Amino acid sequence: MCSGSFAKCLGITLIPLAIVCVLCNILLFFPSGEPAEHDHITDEVFYCGGILGSGVLMIFPALVFLGLKNNDCCGCCGNESCGRRFAMLSSILFAAVGVMGAGYSVIVSAVAINQGPKCYHETNGTQEWGYPFMENDYLSDKQLWSQCLQPKDIVHWHLSLFSVLLVMGIIQMALCAVQVVNGLLGALCGDCCGCCGGSDGAV
């Protein structure tokens, strides 16, 4: 498979992943699916890891990867004017942007999962909004989840959506890293893998 075609496959895969991340981040603004006040929403939601990191910043490399296919044709070997090697090399920069964006989303999601959601809970006889799991390993002790009185099932909501963002971000990082390697090979060896041996498809 030519490096341009492979890059297009990566771009096609990144777009739905970015859409999923954006939707998950938007849903996090509505704890348990209900409207909430600004102070009642987990702080990490406002960092917009899914919208900015795995969403907006991921669209740019995805579009670039898709566009590389337009440069994919036989008869390009040794033809410096076609700019195919430069296109593959430039895709590495956009892939790096994708890695940073997805990495940002992964870090935000990991922090949010580690500290737990903001909820209305009771502490030492006082009920208030805050983070009841900051000092507890709530991930291994589900009995602690009952400390969150409102919103209903907020812990499940929080963990499910941030876990999706975490996994999607890791996948996006892996795909962009693959394109870095693919882009290097395309820049060094040429975009068309087998055109040097024959160019039957050349015009």
From TrEMBL:
<keyword id="KW-1133">Transmembrane helix</keyword>
<feature type="transmembrane region" description="Helical">
    <location>
        <begin position="12"/>
        <end position="32"/>
    </location>
</feature>
<keyword id="KW-0812">Transmembrane</keyword>
<dbReference type="GO" id="GO:0016020">
    <property type="term" value="C:membrane"/>
</dbReference>
<feature type="transmembrane region" description="Helical">
    <location>
        <begin position="86"/>
        <end position="113"/>
    </location>
</feature>
<keyword id="KW-0472">Membrane</keyword>
<feature type="transmembrane region" description="Helical">
    <location>
        <begin position="44"/>
        <end position="66"/>
    </location>
</feature>
<comment type="similarity">
    <text>Belongs to the L6 tetraspanin family.</text>
</comment>
<feature type="transmembrane region" description="Helical">
    <location>
        <begin position="154"/>
        <end position="178"/>
    </location>
</feature>
<protein>
    <submittedName>
        <fullName>Transmembrane 4 L6 family member 4</fullName>
    </submittedName>
</protein>
<dbReference type="Pfam" id="PF05805">
    <property type="entry name" value="L6_membrane"/>
</dbReference>
<dbReference type="InterPro" id="IPR008661">
    <property type="entry name" value="L6_membrane"/>
</dbReference>
